[in-house]
Amino acid sequence: MPKVIPNEAPIKHYEKVIFDQLIRSPRARKWTVFHSKLLEDSVKFGGPCEIDFVIFIPDPYYTVICLEVKDGSFEIDENNQWWRTNYPRESVSSPTEQAQNAMSALNRFAPSYFGPLTLGCAVAVSGTAANPPKGTLVINQTDILGDSLTTRLENYACQKRKKLGPPKKLLDTDAHKALKELQNKLGNTDMSEKRDIIRYDLDTYHQEFLSLTANQLAILTQVRENDRGVIYGAAGTGKTILAMELAKELGGASENGAKKTVALLCSNPYLGYRLEKWAKNIDGVEAGTPLTLPAKVPALEKNYRNILSKYPTLEESLNPEYKAAEWGAFIRDMINVKEEGKKNFDYLIVDEAQNLYDEVFLELMNALLEEGLANGKWRLFGDFENQNIVDLQFDGDWKKILKESLENQKVKNFSYFRLAINCRSTQEIAEAFSIFLDNKNLPPPMNGVHGPDFEIKYFQSTQDKDISEEDKKLPTLEELMNDLVSDFEKRGFSSEQMVLLFTGDRNNLGIDTQRKYGDCALLDIRDVEKESLTEVERVIVTSSSPSNKLRYSTVYDFQGLESELVFLVLSVTDDMMVAGGSVVFFHPKYLSRLLYTGMSRAKTMLVIVVDKSYKIHIDELI
Q1: What is the pLDDT at residue 200?
Q2: What's the pLDDT tens digit per position in 220-245?
Q3: Residue 67 domain boundaries
Q4: Is the pLDDT of residue 530 over 60?
Q5: In 260-328, at which residue ranges do the beta strands (DSSP E only) sit?
Q6: 262 and 177 in one domain?
């Protein structure tokens, strides 16, 4: 294998693929490869220039190649403009220009070595690149199989070297010396402190997450062949994506000249609002929550507004005390005034079903379907084992509990399907799940998708009256959050890529939401944007928030959603007790459920911000 500096895999997915091919190739055994290399280049960039790979190919070619790596498929127009063509189609900065800039930066870094040495540049893409410009080496996905990658790089080096004319002994001696000295000079360049100011390329990280996995496609094929099914899987296995894909397929389909309609139901209103916006452009699909979806049922819509007005305190979001609210009465009122002769939905798809599988909500599902749950066509998507934080009474054999609940609705036959691959989170975050939960049954992440390690930060206990002198040295929650947000802003994360999640009650967050953290003001997820989605104006969350606004939410309200960077705050709330410096929980699975649900919202970076009173529990988990 070649000498590789540093001798560890890159973070970005496709760079790791290239890295693996290089170290496995016998052809590259005498090469030296630097990856993720930063060079100071004030002339061009006014700061550090990052080069994905600097590849030293020794005799007889004595060539140094700067390789730029990009995820996706592209086409290049006559003006040398690059377009990403997989998803979404968009114009992007020219990778060939980036490779040339890297080559120029390396030349300016050590100009004296490139008399006897040959300098070149290339681009590697994870898909294809149609119409690459002449004279540019562009390596497609098919070129990295076997020794094809190193063969193409070596052929390129050969062509570059031939332009210098026949090799001479003196030239070769000088080239050998120059190659070694340049390697040493590059290896002695330490810019680790400046690495943090370069944002991890989040768009590149998750290109592979944009399409269905083989596991999801296989499950989708099986689900199509079954009218009634429960699709279950851990957080990040793509339940919502698959539910949307199935709804899109079924919506608008014709049978005997009649178009079919689909109800897409979820428990979380903030996920529901996103689904409602999405469904506006999908033929035959209506989306919403138990509160909003009845307004869209032809058989129920006439009486919706009048009945809703009878329940002014009805919570938009479910919570552990939802049975004490008015859900049952509201739903039964809706069912009892069903307008005769009006048709219900042909299909029902339920996301986050782990929060909706008791008698109250199953009655609503039964009413939404034209043929009811017993004979109708429905699919329930959920994480019944790890994410049921609404009602902890469902601990235990969830399949038995669900089966009994459905039998009460006269359901006799349905099938189970398991999603088995985490296609949301990096390997480091997925591994954190296993560390904290000691659960060997959690799904493995997609191979090769890497990110930074998770971090744990402690702040002063807010409920412990006998705080020690050592603990007084810890920052307060507000001080810690200010430092963390400032730090990640400097690393290049924008406010749209962060979210602050609290495990406590919304009215008892333990932090001043009126002040700034870093350059960001906190913005409640419930107040991000207002838009009239139904007859009643609702608060919705969009995919991005206004500039310099950091979204915050409770863990429950964020269920079903995701963010590139999650700050998960474990604070001690008023309903908890601290004894002997340690928090006491009302339920043995309380902490693991909240940790799992909150941690699994993170795609790329996870920071767990913890009250010191949790430390004993955290130490036990890890």
Answers
A1: 36
A2: 888 888 999 999 988 888 899 899 98
A3: 3-198
A4: no
A5: 262-266, 285-288
A6: no
Q: Which residues of 553-591 are buried (b: 16+ CB within 10 A; e: fewer)?
A: bbbbbbbbbbbbbbbbbbbbbeebebeeeebeeeeeeeb
User: What is the phi/psi pair of residue 408, to 5°?
Assistant: -65, -20
Task: Give 502's strand partners.
Answer: 554, 569
Q: What is the pLDDT of residue 460?
A: 86
Q: What residue spans of 464-545 are helical by DSSP H?
A: 469-472, 477-491
Q: Is the dihedral of CA 239, 240, 245, 247 positive or negative?
A: positive
Last residue of a domain, one of 418, 448, 482: 418
Same domain flag for 414 and 443: no
Pairing status of strand 529-532 against strand 537-540? antiparallel
Q: What is the pLDDT of residues 330-373, one digit of tens each?
A: 888 887 776 666 678 999 999 989 888 778 889 889 988 888 99
The answer to whether the CB of 359 falls within 8 A of the CB of 405 is: yes
pLDDT at 146: 60
H/E run at residue 615: helix 615-621
First vs last Cα of the chain: how many Å apart? 35
% of the chain beyond a pLDDT of 90: 14
Q: What is the pLDDT of residue 230?
A: 95
DSSP string over 162-175 = HTT-S--HHHHHHH
pLDDT tens digits, one per residue of 272-294: 888 888 898 888 999 998 888 88
Q: What percent of the chain shows pLDDT beyond 70?
A: 78
Phi and psi at 35, nearest 5°, equal -130, 155
Burial class (CB in 10 A: 0-12, 13-18, 19+), 257: exposed
- Residue 237 placed within a domain: yes
Partners of 266 in the β-ladder = 351
Rounded Cα gap, residues 58 and 128, in angstroms? 29
Site of tokens 């604070």: 571
Instruction: Give this prediction's pTM.
Output: 0.62
Alpha-helical runs (H) found in 369-426: 372-375, 398-407
User: Hey, which residues does 608 pair with through a beta bridge?
Assistant: 456, 568
Identity of residue 245: E
Closest CA to 247 of 261, 259, 267, 257: 261
Alpha carbon distance 446, 424 (integer Å): 8
Residues 232 and 152 in one domain: no
Domain with residue 311: its CATH number is 3.40.50.300
* Continuous H helices in 230-297: 239-250, 269-279
For the chain, the domain total comes to 3
